[in-house]
Every structure is written in C-alpha cells, then in structure tokens.
Amino acid sequence: MDLLAESAPPSGGAAFDEILIAMVLVTVVYLPLGWFLLRERGGHATVLGRLADATGRKTGLPRWSALSMPLAVLSLITAAFGVYWDVPIHMQNGRDEGPLANPSHYPILFGILGFLAAGVISAGLAKDPLPRRTVSFSRTWQVPMGAMVLLGAGLIAAVGFPADDLWHRLFGQDVTEWGPTHVMMIGGAVTCSLGVLLLLAESHQVGWRPSGPPLLLGRLAQVGLGLAGRILPPVRREAPAPKVQDQVAWATRVLLTITIGLCIIPMAFLMEFDLGVPQFPAATLFIISGFLTAWIFVAGRLFFGPGGALVTWLTYLVIRLLILVITLPVPDITRARWLLFIGAALAIEGLALVVRSRGPVFAGTAGVLAGVVGMAVDWWWMGVFMPYPLPPETSQMPLLLGLAAVAGLAGGLLGWSFAHHLERSAGLPAASRPERVTADDRGRWFGTTGVAIWVVLMGLFGVPSAQGVTEAQKECGERGCRTTYEAQDDEVLFGRVSYADDCIGQDRCQSVVTVTTDPVDATDDAVWFSAIAYQGNQEDDESVPGNGIVTTAMESTGQPGEFRTEEPLPLYGRWKVLVRLHLAPTTMVAMPIHMPEDTAIDGDAAGLVRAEDGDAVPFVHEPYLLQRERKDGVPVWLWSVMYSAVILSWLALLAFFGWCYAGAARGAGRPARRGRDLVESPSS
User: Fold this and answer.
1) At residue 677, does pLDDT exceed 60?
2) What gap in Å lies between CA 347 and CA 77, rounded to an integer?
3) 593 and 558 in a common domain
4) Could you tell me the pTM of the whole model?
C-alpha cells in the first residue's frame, strides 16, 4: 500500500515544464500560420495561398473553403482518435502523471489546434468571390459565415485546453467526460462540423458545383432512388426525379445531405454510455439521442427528399465504424459500442410517405416519432450490443420514452429550421429540389424553441441527485486508518456486505459480493443496479481482470432486498470497487467497497476504503466517489461563478451559430460579392 501511495499521480494542474512544452507546440503551429496570413492579407503570394488556389482548381471550391474544410474534417478525425483512446485508458489505468505524459493527449491537442487553424485559414484567405452575407473584419476584409462558425468552435475548444489545467488547480480532478472544460473541448470539436456544412453551402452560393467523385455519387443516388421508386408501393410523389441536366445540382444536394449527417457527431457526449461507465442519469441518454436523431434525420429528409433520413443515418453509421477502425491499432483498450438509431430514420421516412405537409407540424411530429420509435428500437439494441448497465429496467421505459418524445419534438423543430436555413444559404435552383421547405422567417424561432426545450430537459434531468446526505470521515484504529462515509440524514440507504471469499485487500483477491439493502425495497424504482471495478490495470500484468475494468449485474437471490454480483469482483491493489444504484429519474448513489489510499489528494476522502464482511455501508452520492479527487473546502461561490461562466459561454456560442446560419440564409438569391461590393456592410 505504501508503494501505491508513493507513486500516486498528481491530482491538480500540470507541472510548469509541461505547460511550457504545450506553449511551444502552439507557437510552432500558429506563428508560421499567422505570418502566412498576414502576407496574404497584404497582397503577397504565399505557399498557403497557392496551395488553396491549386486545391480550388481541382475541386472548384473557392480558396476560403478549399483548404479549411478538409483540414477541419481531418482535425476532427485526429481528435476523435485521441478522445476514444484517452477515455478508456483513464477508466482502466487512472490519472496521468501529467497532461503530456499521456500519448493520447497529443492527437487531441493537435486536433483542437487544427479546428481553430481551419477557421483562421478560411478567414485569412477570404477574397472574392464571397457569399453575399459576410462579417466585416475591416473595410476590405469580409469573412464568410461558415468561417465564423469554425472560428467560434475552434476558439472554445482551444480555450478549453488551458482552462482544463486551471480548473484542476482550483477544484482538483473531475474525472468525467462532462466536466465543464471537457465539454468546452469536446463541444468545440463536435460543432466544427456546422462550420464545414455552412462553408459548403456558401461555396455553392458563389458558383461551386461538384465534379468527379461527388458528381458520380449524385448519379448513383439518382439510380438508387429510381430503383427504390419502382420497388416501393405507389405514393403521392413529392417532386419528379431530376433530369440529366440537373444531375450536378442533384450531386450537390447529395453531398450537402451527407454533410448534414456529419453534424450528428455530438453523439460523442454519449461516450461514457458507449464504454459502460455512465456517470449521468439514463434520462440524458434518451434526451440527447432523441434530440440528435430528430434534428439530423428530419433535416436530412426535408433537405434531400425521399431517402434523406436514411442518407444521414448511413453517414452516422460510417462515422461509428470509422471511430472503431481508427482505434483498432491501439492495443488493450475498451472499445466503444454505439446505439443503432435506425428506428428513428425509418419512423421519419414512414411518416413522410403518408403525410403531404412539410411544415413545422410535420417536423415536430416526425421528431416525436423519432424519439419514441427510435429509442424503443434502441432499447432492444442495448441488450444486444451495448455494454452493461444498459439497457434500463423495463419499468422505467415509459418515463424515458416520454422524455425522448419531448426531446424529439425539440430536435424536429430545430431540424425544420436547419434545413430551411441551409437550403436558402446554398441557393439551390428550384428545379433540383425534391421538396421545398417553406421559405419564410419562422425558421429561426422554431429552431430557438427546439434548442430551448432541449436545454431545459438537460437542466432538469441531466444532473445526478442524491438520496440523503453522507460525509467522508477518516478514522484510525486497530485496522489502520480508513475512510468511511457516515450518514447525516435519515433517508440514506444502506447495504450490508458479505463475501463468498472473505479476502478483501489480499493480493489477487476476487470474490462474489452480496449486498442486502436497507430498506429491502430500496431498489424497487431502480433504473439499474450494478457493480463496477475500475482503474485496476497494472503494468506488465497480463492476468488483470477485464484489462482494468469489470462491470457486472447485481442479481436478486430471491431473499427480500438481497442481491449478489453475477461475476466476482477484484478487491485488492489499485482497484476501485463500487455497487451502483440509479433510481428514477435522477438519483445516483453508490456503495464504496474498496478504494486505495491516494496521498496526492487532500481531504478525508483520500484514505483507504475497505468494507469488511458484515459491514453496513451507506449509499453515497455517486459523484463523490467517482470524482474523489475533487478538492474539499472550495467556496461555493467559486463553483457557481466558474460553472456559470462556462454555461453562459456555451449559450452565447449557440446563439452565435444561429446568427451565422440566419445571416447566410438572408443572403440567398443575391449575387456573390466582387470588387467594390466587398466594402458593403454585412448588415445590408
């Protein structure tokens, strides 16, 4: 135990030398980039500008999107590789020795730098022809709206990296994907796809038309949809198939629809569910999934026409398979699973076959169906493919599907607004439109309403709550110094622990654990009741169970209130072992069974936790245990100020994204800016 204590990694911020290295890496990337762009704005030819022009000649894209779009996508893939490598090794191994001691942090860092660089390059290379609607950086410097979205997403992600170190210095380690600064970094990454999509639409506005593979893709889609029209039963046709002369515009719509599908990548916030270690209520899984699928699949169906929801679903499936493939070279990590989402796409397509309207009522109804039908199908899929503790108990499904329905309504309204603004931004010719979204200014209000509903749902059901109050206390006695949790409230649940093999703390100890709850009906409203052992991976130890993480069900023995783990749990060394109880709708508590001493953190919670055979152990608010590295004694006002700052920055950024999309849409139908038009005010 002393050896473990001495080698404990730091729980606060990074060492100064690692901060210095990170600053050097940022300088190496941005100093040359800034020099190139200053020369470009001064009218001098540079390698960067010539590369953008050469890429533009090959693709037909304007110079301000020819480099930035592929760079943003490549950076997104790089960061995804790092994140889906980083999170599993934290689950299996624990904290890092430092932020740069973990190799998975490098692709995350360079991915974040790439998002911001994509926006900077797009803004720096912005020369005519430009979209009609731009933002003025100076009298002669106008920036496309898509570049502004990339800049916003890249900036919040880039700020999140140093802010993460500051956060750990103030509050300690909050080891969850949804920590505020983690949300800044991951959120910036997943929203950069909005910038890619808007740049593509603005490129079409100034005359870009796909050729080569994109055009071939459009023709293949036309053939496929033609065959589908012969196989499917006759229905009211929404619009005739495009003629040969419209195939270029058709290919544009195919490419834009695929890019709409790319915008589903905020599903990365479900990673903890995908890996089997959810730290937030199951309701959030249904709220996020219902909202995302309704938003993206409804937008795809409205924008593309018949088959649009399936096109965006196929994009989602390709993304999930790509994440799996790029992490395969990394050995011995837990692989993320994923939800299927096919039910939501089929429900939207089915409704569109029998309903003529394509207004917000259709979008809202389609969103509700996506939430209910889609998540009902995925509830079955969870039992087939997703890691334990999914799926939730059957008795909780009415509530969870109801939340998915409301989230789907919100997503459907946003999807209608999204398709509406994108169609106007791209300025596609009417002849190529399989169906049209009503061209009025209601879109922004429906979109804002959808986002507001989703934010309220997450606020109500996204924060874990506790049942009763418990407090960590460190005591020293005959058994040495231990951390225990003492009940401070009569509503606290208890569990009496017993072991099939009473060897806890001994080397290689593994035992089936039995828990008898008090009261005996404590689990009647359970969403899940499970046990987890994590962060137990030892270097050069091939016999470690589960490669450092074990999850198992708590099964009833038939006796009132008595449950037993389905598999034995490791109860020694660095393993942290909890029995987890999630009660509807948001209560999340856990019994600490075994946790090693951690001298790198302060407070009573840092001591050895060991529940002996026969001990009655209280169920503690689960975040207290999963985030035991958080510092004690931090003023409440400081928590409030910092959380408020992060939340407000995100709400401001979402509003900014909406303003950019609305601005690009209002410029539709006008000629591209050239020459003297460049000095026109963006508000014109």
Assistant:
1) no
2) 30
3) yes
4) 0.90
Residue 449 belongs to some domain of the structure: no
For residues 426 and 538, membership in a common domain is answered with no
Q: Does residue 329 fall inside a structural domain?
A: yes
So what's the pLDDT on residue 671? 57
CA-nearest of 684, 620, 571 to 136 is 684
Tokens of 555: 């099964």
pLDDT (tens digit, 9 = 90+) per residue, 196-229?
999 999 998 888 877 666 666 666 666 666 665 5
CA distance 85 to 105: 9
Domain count, the chain: 3
Query: How would residue 431 be classed by pLDDT, with cut points 50, 70 and 90?
Result: very low
Neighbouring CB atoms inside 10 A of 216's CB total 13
Alpha carbon 348 to chain centroid, angstroms = 23
Specify the pLDDT at position 136: 92
Q: Are residues 350 and 270 in the same domain?
A: yes
Cβ 360 vs Cβ 243: under 8 Å: no
Contact between 408 and 367 (Cβ < 8 Å): yes
The torsion of the CA quartet 42, 43, 49, 53, rounded to 10 degrees, works out to 150
CB 351 within 8 A of CB 106: no
Provide the pLDDT confidence category of residue 6 given band limits of 50, 70 and 90: very low
Residue 476, domain member (yes or no): yes
Residue 608 tokens, joined: 């050895």
In the prediction, which pLDDT does 676 show? 42
Query: What stretch of H or E contains 118?
Result: helix 105-124
Kindly report, residue by residue over 564-596, the tens digit of the pLDDT. 999 999 999 999 999 999 999 999 999 999 999
Same domain, residue pair 383 and 526: no
Same domain assignment for residues 25 and 159: yes
- Give the model confidence (pLDDT) of 662-675 as tens digits: 889 886 655 556 54
Mean pLDDT within 41-65: 89
Token pair, residue 554, equals 């708590």
Q: Is pLDDT larger for residue 476 or for residue 46?
A: 46
- In terms of DSSP bridges, do strands 569-570 and 576-583 run parallel, antiparallel, or are they unpaired? unpaired
Per the structure, the complete domain to which residue 569 belongs is given by 470-626
CA 561-565-567 angle, to 5 degrees, is 165
**In a shared domain, residues 244 and 200:** no
Phi, psi (deg, nearest 5) at residue 633: 80, 10
Quick check: is 592 in a domain?
Answer: yes
Q: Is 576 helix (H, G, I), strand (E, B) or coil?
A: strand
At what angle are helices 308-327 and 247-262 packed, to 10 degrees?
50
Same domain (yes/no): 264, 388: yes
Q: Do residue 343 and residue 484 come from a single domain?
A: no
Q: Residue 165 is encoded by which pair of tokens?
A: 């170190």
